[in-house]
Amino acid sequence: MVSGVAGVGKTTLVQKFIFDWATGKHYQKFAFVFFFKFRDLNTITEKRSLESLICQIYPHLQDKLPRVLEDPEKLLFIFDGLDESKTDLKLSRGGSQELCMNLGDVKPVTVIVASLLNQTLLKGCSVLLTSRPSKLTSLEAGVFHRVASIVGFLSKERERYFSMFFGDERASRKAFAYVRDSQVLYTLCYNPSYCWITCTALKPCFMATAGRPQPAPKTVTQLFVSYITHIMANHTQERPEPQRMRDILVNVGRLAEYGLTYRTLVFQPHYLEVANVEFSPFLSGFLVENPQTDDSAQVTYSFLHLTIQEFFAALVQYLDYKEDKFRDTMDKARSCKEGDYEIFSRFLVGLSHPATKMPLEKYVGKFSAEATRKVIECLSEMNYEELQSREDPEGKRRLMNLLHLLFESRNSQLVRDVLGKDAHMDFSELYLMPVDCTVLAYVLSCCEEIQCLTLDSCFIQNEGLERLRPEMHKVRELSLSDNDLKDDSMKNICSVLKHPNCRLEDLSLGQNMFTEASCTALASALKENQTLFSLDLTRNKMRNTGLSTLLEVLETPQCKIQKLVLQENGLSDDSCGRLCSALSKNSTLRHLNLSANVYTDGCAEDMHLLILTSPSLTDIRLSLNDFSPAVERQLRSLQREGLKIHI
Predict the structure, then answer these.
(1) CA nearest 517: which of 484, 491, 554, 539?
(2) Which DSSP state fits 29?
(3) Which of 187, 267, 442, 647 is a plausible cystine mate for 271, CB 3.0–4.6 Å?
(4) pLDDT tens digits, residue range 462-511?
(5) Read out DSSP for 371-403?
(6) Is position 347 within any domain?
(7) The domain containing residue 338 runs over which residues?
């Protein structure tokens, strides 16, 4: 299985695979490679045998097929775009469907595919599938010997693509710098298809031949608006009148909406006739003709990219608002669990913003005010706390999708209405991409204060922190545990602590990779900070040297820290004397956790003194160290009213 989001290059990869095989460069163990697209297989409604399916796509093999299929180990079957299949692929043998056992067995197409994968048909053959990640959750991963993900362009590859696309080095540098700084667009450009759309949309912004350049887009919706208006302005010599242009886009939008509803990506000519869409050079910027692989002269049509189809399905809601259709579409979007309406919903919300839709309104007239009102109303009614319910494993992803909608809306008041006051957001164990961090930063920027933000095990890394940094000072309780953050990330955290309007009271940095090298910067930030009460550094690598640096903060009169967790930091006996000295001068620290370090009986006297001379300490944890039972009893005997000792 080759997995990857729409447009990242799954189909291009298998085309390159076939090309390298056909030209003798690679994969010569295969005598035959059969290539099928699920979007084409959707048109086959009747049951088939594998033999008749192959003959339909490869009619020249009709007479030779029995010999071709004699040696399955030399055969490769490629099925591209599982996520586009109208029928679910059921891979478990225990299901209600029976798999094919013989070449002549007549079954639905997805049963044939499942039979090849389960090796009940042509045992020994190889099968390669491609799919969007959302489809993989419903499959049995054990059926596949290997699952690979396409990650798209790295930074240098994005820059090279821009250079090749623009051809003008000065313009490409300016465009790429803009995209890199805008963050959301830059993150999108890891995807080759989005990279092409981005470059196409930005070309009039950075290579204007006459007049002032167009303003550059900030959101995904604005990017696609720029792309569509670019096509409308440059893809036809005789531009239709606004009403005619509006009628054309309405018809295209209804075709797109039908395809989205019924999971149709390839349209027969009669679909266009029913939708009153007349194919023209103007529409070739949105729709493309697909020549058939068989001998039929008929041509099918599809949108240039699935995302463009989703954009038109959203646009038609504003150009031709019909309450019943709108309500049905919104109901489908809400009930959908596989992300089919995710991008559509972002476009729908994005088009509600006045500045975003304005370039299109110049060509097609005003958008429906009622549609705008309904979209904002639907968003404002969403309960973000219910979305992140612990009982629902998909809740956190749905909450992040809601934040993406709010980002596209560019409506700060709407953000505040949805989140309300004292917002708590928990994304723990949800993998957050840099673009998610950019979206989250925008949401934080709209709020005066966030009560609690939990980002444990989100793998946000330094790039994600960099995007969140400007707004994290608004959070009261922040947890960044288990993100594999290293010393270079500490400068972003210190920047938050030093912010003049910092509200941070509770900071958890446990289970990361911070070492003593981070402690100088952290100590400096803590000396300036006047809000932090609790600091958790569990399971880092501060060591004795790092602790000594941090203790300088505890000795200062302005220190506000009441709880310090240094569990499992490699602290040894040598640090105990310094710890004792610092805490004897501290009047704020109440809770100290030194569990799971390597303290031994050698520091018993210093530890004894620390407990007796720390004036404000009410709770100290020393469990899982290397004290002998006798020393443990001695230290435990020091417990008194107002002081608990856990050992």
Answers:
(1) 491
(2) T
(3) 267
(4) 888 999 999 999 999 999 999 999 999 999 999 999 999 999 999 999 99
(5) HHHHHHHHHHT--HHHHT-TT-TTHHHHHHHHH
(6) yes
(7) 242-364
Nearest to 74 by CA among 114, 145, 127, 126: 126
In a domain, 581, yes or no: no
- The rounded percent of the chain whose pLDDT value lies above 90 is 60
Statement to judge: residues 172 and 113 lie in one domain? no
Report the alpha-carbon angle 22-28-29, nearest 5: 135
Q: For residue 559, give the nearest of 600, 509, 508, 525 by alpha carbon.
A: 525
pTM of the predicted structure, to 2 decimals: 0.74
Res 8: pLDDT: 82
How much is the mean pLDDT over the chain? 89
Q: Which residue, among 38, 85, 134, has the nearest Cα to 263 in the 3D structure?
A: 85
Note whether 212 and 322 are same-domain residues. no
Q: How far apart are CA 425 and CA 538, in angstroms?
A: 22
* Helix 395-409 with 412-419: angle, nearest 10 deg: 150
pLDDT, tens digit, for every residue of 325-372?
898 888 888 776 656 788 899 999 999 999 999 999 999 999 999 999
Tell whether 57 is covered by a domain.
yes
Calpha distance 434→188 (Å, rounded): 10
Burial class from Cβ neighbours inside 10 Å (0-12, 13-18, 19+) for residue 95 reads exposed
Same domain, 144 and 160: no
Whether 194 and 158 have beta carbons less than 8 Å apart is answered as: no
Q: What is the pLDDT of residues 568-626, one digit of tens each?
A: 999 999 999 999 999 988 999 999 999 999 999 999 999 999 999 888 999 999 999 99
Rounded Cα distance, 617 and 216, in Å: 57
Task: Provide the number of structural domains found in the chain.
Answer: 3
- Alpha-carbon distance of 405 to 423, in angstroms, equals 17
What per-residue string of b and e applies to 238-254 under the rule 16 or more CB within 10 Å gives b?
eebeeeebbbbbbbbbb
Contacts of residue 155, defined as CB under 8 A and 6 or more positions apart, other chains included, come to none
CB 613 within 8 A of CB 585: no
Pairing of strands 287-291, 299-303: antiparallel
Of the residues 364, 388, 412, which one is the last residue of a structural domain? 364
Confirm whether 92 is domain-assigned: yes
Name the β-bridge partners of 290. 300
Q: How high is the pLDDT of residue 388?
A: 72
